[in-house]
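During the no-cost extension, the postdoctoral fellow (Dr. R.K.) reprocessed legacy sequence entries with the updated structure-token encoder. One reprocessed record is reproduced below for audit purposes.
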Amino acid sequence: MRWGRGTTLKDSTSAVGRRPIAILAAVLTVILGLAACTSSGSDGNSAQGAQGAGADSSAEVVLAPQAGADDVAPRDPISVTVSGGTIEEVELTNSESKSVKGELSEDKTTWKVAEPLGYGKTYTWSGSAVGGDGETVPIEGSFTTVTPSATNNVKSNVGDDKTYGIAMPVSLTFDAPVQDKAAVEKALNIETTPETEGAWAWLENDTSVHWRPKEYWKPGTEVKVRADLYGVPMGGGVYGANDLEVAFTIGRAQIVKADTQEHRMVVYRDGEKVGEYPASFGLESDPGRVTRSGIHVVMSKHPTYFMNNPGYGYEDFEVQWAVRVSNNGEFVHSAPWSVGDQGRRNVSHGCINLAPDNAKEFYDSTMIGDPMEITGSSEELGPQDGMYYDWTYSWEEWTSLSALDS
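Re-encoded structure tokens follow.
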């Protein structure tokens, strides 16, 4: 019903006019009432039902692992979860009654262990949960962690707060070969600033896993290495013995280019040539003395070093300003006895001989991790020469040495 334009308020309240108003009000009341019933009948009743169920529900406690479990790995997910209620109090203690650190969720329905557990220990739950019905339910039970047949320790070639050259690989070395390499590799993490593409590869008879970038590091890169290996099963009943975390920095970009046929060694820093030295490399007529071609990496520096090679008749032979570039005995060092050959002939036992002043200058300029790109010889650097031969692999070859599917 709609009022006419000329109708006054007085007309609408007349005896005759009240009946249509009353009828309209009744109709609207019925319609609105039906609409309200329809709306609450679906959403309102279901919400009320959920609230009612919560108010009347009993707490149900779920332990992970379940009570009585044994051979639990120290890094397995350990938790207690309550449905139909909340955790009132909870504690997990070891065999010596020491409490384990944990975290309670904001809604107080889940408590999770926040630290690795020990090997060969029994852990016991205690506490209680309260349900929507107000009834208390105990949190109780125990489980036992695995006793390894052996543990495997890991150590790193890089150190905290150190600075390395642009070819430096990260090498994690184990006390014994790793059987489950995939499980170990999943527990390894590298963070770099700026972001750097790289990959892990297994080398040295499964006792070492290396990470190297696809290309040389960018100068100034910040690197963080984390190996969460304690409690990780490594295969054959062997578990990780320790975690490892280390952070280091990449320094300036210095590259050495050495040609055995040109008998020279040239040093470039940040793209500029900063040094060039006459050199004598390994005697080419003897395969045991040939300096290897390939990308070497500076491994260590020694103001004085005593060299041993009984097969060639010398022991504790003293040299100065020795820079190791492979594990097969190759060094850059001072060699005053071969100055006449340097720049002309290769006469060494595999080392790169420099004049004393040149050797000292190079020694002062280089750092561990610098690349030395040697070319021209008949023998190639490889696994037989020991660490570090990482850069002798193409990127495709390197990534194929990962234990994880790409």
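Residues 306 and 318 are 4 Å apart (CA to CA). Residues 150-251 form a domain with the Immunoglobulin-like fold (CATH 2.60.40.3710). The remaining legacy entries will be reprocessed before the final report is submitted.
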